[in-house]
Design a protein that fits this description.
72% helix; globular; Lysozyme inhibitor LprI N-terminal domain-containing protein; signal
Length: 114
């Protein structure tokens, strides 16, 4: 079978362009770990998220999940505010880990509601 190099190149360029567009339009979370953008008074929880790749990735997943559930009408802004309040009261990694686990349980239950 003969491959058309120009089609393959176009497909790769299309995928690369889509990736760049997604990066440029990705919605940021409420925690910005960019040192130049961080507030002067960050909570300990915000520092923990920014200093740990695992917490940062976990929080990005939670944020995306919250936005999907919010858009679907499964949760509301009050649910997100309650999560953020719990998160921001954490001053240890163990507390933050527990709040993240609690969110995953809450989100699973919210998805299961009729």
């Amino acid at each position: 079978m003969h491959r058309c190099p120009s089609l393959s190149l176009l497909a790769r360029l299309g995928v690369a362009l889509a990736g760049v567009i997604c990066l440029g339009t990705a919605r940021a979370t409420d925690i910005d770990c960019d040192p130049s953008a961080r507030p002067a008074v960050a909570t300990q929880a915000q520092r923990l998220v920014c200093e740990s790749a695992l917490f940062s990735m976990g929080y990005q997943r939670i944020y995306a999940d919250q936005q999907r559930l919010l858009k679907a009408g499964t949760i509301n802004e009050t649910d997100i505010a309650a999560f953020r309040n719990k998160r921001d009261r954490c001053d240890t990694a163990a507390c933050l880990d527990a709040v993240f686990r609690e969110w995953r349980t809450f989100a699973a239950q919210a998805r299961a509601r009729p």
